[in-house]
Amino acid sequence: VEYVSTDLDDIIKRILPKSESIPISFEPPACTKDKINQGIIWFRLFIQILIRMNDMDQAKNDLLRLWREEYDGNTRELKVADEFERKFQPSRAVWCAIGGLHVAETLLSTTRRKELAFDFAKRAQMKSNMVPVVLEIRVESKKVTLPYADISKFCEFQNEEEVVFMMGTISQVNDVHYSDREKTWIVKLSLCGEDDPRLKDMIDYIKYEIKDTADLVTLANFFIKMGESNMAKEYYRKYENQLSTDDPNMKRIWQGLSNIADIEGNYSISIDDYSKAHECFNEQIDICQNLPSHHPQVGKCYANIANLYELQGENNLALENYEKAYKIFTQSLPAYHPDTTKVEQSIENLSLQKNSTKETSNQSTIWEMIEISEDQSEANKIIETFLIVWLDANVNKTKDNEETYKALRTSINYLKTFDNLKEGEAYIQSIHHEKIILIVSGGFGMEIVPRIHDFEQINCIYVYCLDKAHHEQWSKDYSKVKSVIIKRNQLVEEITEDQKIRNKTEDSLPMSILNRTAVAKETTTKDIAKEMGSILWFQLLIDVLLRMEHTDDAKIELIKTWRENYTGNSSELNIIKEFERKYKREKAVWWYTRQSSLYRILNKSLREQSIDMIFSFRFFLTELSKQVSQLYQNYMQQIKASHTISKPIHVYRGQVIAKEEFEQMQNSIGGFISINSFFSTSRNESEARKFAMGSSVTEKLRRILFMIEIDPRLPTKPFADIDGISFYPYEQEILFMLGSIFRIDKIESDEENKLSIINMSLCSEDDFELKELFAYLKEDIGEEASMITLGNILLQMGEYDKGERIFLRMNHQEGLINVA
């Protein structure tokens, strides 16, 4: 029971809006300018759009219609509405907001009279979950703020000395205390200026969104961003009814309606409601008939329909619609645009499926004979480049072999044993992305080596036997046979030492090569377009990942994933335990250069663009990037102070690469190499040459020496001199940042040593030919770095399943969802 009275007017006064709660949003003190409450940003943007819209007559009619609908049958309120319709003038707006109209609760009404404010607070009957509060607001007239006004002379109650603050006004909370004398809480506030650093990003964002004008389309676009599709449709349709069919703004409406159909259709796909998705995309096609036939939005319609047909297994219909989309995109978009690239790739994939015939080879025959689905599943979990396959009839039967197995896992984690030759051979054929170190018994070796020797996945072979002389005789004809060994210790030592070199020289660099024509704007070749799209989107993906804020959960996830993949490997598990206990951010480079699985996992994940693994290791990628950047800044300061900044820096790296990659480089002189991982080099040329010469040249592999020139005066991706802080402190090592891009200047040949010397220079970020395109793509996804941005980039790359997994990971309360 709030109040007892015999006076009805007295009761009405107590119910009226003077005691209504005020809609307020609070920001906790820990929030920074980058973390302004999303609700505040949306509300301020919404209010600014409404204020700038130039449709006062229509707005007044809408207000009256809603007012009368809400108070249908209330004679008194309807009379007020009629009076408002007849007599309202803009000069009387403040007076209308004071009397009791419900719009008043969106304005903050205050008084200059402190005692009156306390009186109001005390008069309001409090419930158990409410307390009396007086807001004491300090206003500095010098600050540029949202408008406020002394409206005393306009008010019905002039003695209240009322000051009204604009909707969306933001204040800083300076103090909260309880007054024993007044029995009321006092909250001291100060009005924030629009130039407050904490509000700058919000103000800039609002200005960017609405620019100079605002109309119903602006409002509808705003509702799309809030996820209010039905509201957006209502305002698009409302504006459509006001315009003639030839009005240029009609295109904006049709594009907006098409975007909504696109969003709703793809949402329906995500919940497997294909029937609803067809309905949405058909609606999108109908809307887009109003646009020019070559408009990109029309192409997007056909691409959506094609994707839906493909998911339903209707490949012919999918191909037909992809081809329609491709034709439109090639007319309206640059050749390198990711939309064109995705559609093009889909056409190629479907065409290959359509024209493919069933192959019958010796390999497939063996595959059909043996069921190895479990092995296939396990192969997908291999997170390093190299694995050991051990074929021996007694491999699982002796204590000696068990000890050998444990010892070998210290250098190569994934080791698969087979005592059945056919099963082992079938498993070897199932490996497509990794490199196999094969250990084989003499008897099995004589039979299988001739058949599998030339398989690309076979890196090298060790024959482990009892009769060395006999097996050396037949094996000398096979170049991949590294050794014939009879002693266990020798086998372990040789594989371990060889593997250290292989990790440095044969673990393929995650790199992409662009020839010079690939960066020319006029180029339309589809292979170039496809390559450019994938390279640049991956660079953007990494850029967003590194700019994202990571919680403590990121480190926990890294350790959990790392540990799960090395179960049973005591050597690696000890290293992981040490990382968990002792890791510090200033030791990131030390950990990366340490002889462990960490850098091998990162390199393979980046080379294969394994998004799940990259995301799991995002904590370390970010930490390492930050340390390289800091070391780069320190180094630049040092060489500036010593006046040696104009002196070029030369570094080197020796390794082997695939023959196809080398030939691509030969055809790309003047073009670029993008290294999609951290890139380790040395100032010591002879040491780099030694690494290159330590590997054999085969039909599939070529020895190379990278000779790289750095001009320290140019703004480049960071690089770090890690001499002294590396795990190997005296190797004169220079580490380049993830995603560094180099120009291929020339290629020379050292015939005597079968060594190719690739001369490169580190590209300036200012003069790099792809800068304009990179900036375009970056603008397309926005500056925000969040899980949502990451997911959106994966969708742009055509990695729908990976994008879905990112979205499923999300806390849906994070970030702004950009669905426009």
Automatic annotation (TrEMBL):
InterPro entries: ADP-ribosyltransferase, TPR-like_helical_dom_sf, TPR_rpt. GO terms for cellular component: extracellular region. Gene3D superfamilies: Tetratricopeptide repeat domain, Toxin ADP-ribosyltransferase, Chain A, domain 1. Residues 586-757 form the ADP ribosyltransferase domain. Pfam families: ADPrib_exo_Tox, TPR_12. This is ADP ribosyltransferase domain-containing protein. It comes from Rotaria sordida. The lineage of its organism: Eukaryota, Metazoa, Spiralia, Gnathifera, Rotifera.
